[in-house]
Amino acid sequence: MKKDLKYLAKFSKPKKINLSVVDDIENQVDSFEEAEGLASYLAYEWGDEIIDAYVDLRLQYNIDDYVVNSSVKSLDEFTDNLRESLDKLQRAADELGLSPNDLYADYDELRQRVDNANSLYSDAYDKYQEVINVTGNSNFWR
């Protein structure tokens, strides 16, 4: 086709045609076709694959549901209540001249877990904030 245009240009003297525009077009076609193919793939295939994968991931790792519909945010409240009850048990055992373990067999282990619960709560909160920052999810733990 390029030859045909040059042939026509050679014999049509009244108008001077700059055929370098054909060269420009041919030089730009490869870049255009690459970009066109990538845009088509994103628009009609890959974009939907990304959305489907993201939805599957959110369903598998549903951090929002985990925080909103579980008791994780209430650990501090449960800890305070349990600490108060353990303190009462300690006082009652002291009055009776007994060890709290005599009244509640797992007292020492439970007391240790309660004493560590504030740190655990803080670590869970910090990790949730990190997850939210990475994923861009809404923050439901305030």
Overview of this structure, please?
The protein has 142 residues and is an all-alpha fold. The protein has two domains: 1-60; 63-142. It contains six helices and no strands. It has helices at residues 2-11, 20-60, 63-68, 75-96, 100-103, 107-135. Helix 4 (75-96) runs antiparallel to helix 6. The longest helix has 41 residues, at 20-60. The chain is rod-shaped. The two termini are 69 Å apart.
Structural class: mainly alpha
Poorly predicted runs are: none
Summed over residues and divided by their number, the pLDDT gives a mean of 90
**What value does the Rg take, in angstroms?**
36 Å
Largest sheet: none
Q: Estimate nothing, just give the exact number of structural domains.
A: 2
Which geometry do the CA atoms define? rod-shaped
Number of helices: 6
Q: Which strand-content bin applies to the residues? A: under 5%
**Alpha-carbon distance between the two ends:** 69 Å
Number of strands: 0
Query: How do the SSEs run, as a string of H and E?
Result: HHHHHH
Detail the topology: elements first, then pairings.
Layout: H1 2-11, H2 20-60, H3 63-68, H4 75-96, H5 100-103, H6 107-135
Helix pairs in contact: 4-6
Features of the shown structure:
142 residues; 6 helices; mainly alpha; 2 domains
Give me a quick take on this structure.
Helix content is 79%, strand content 0%.
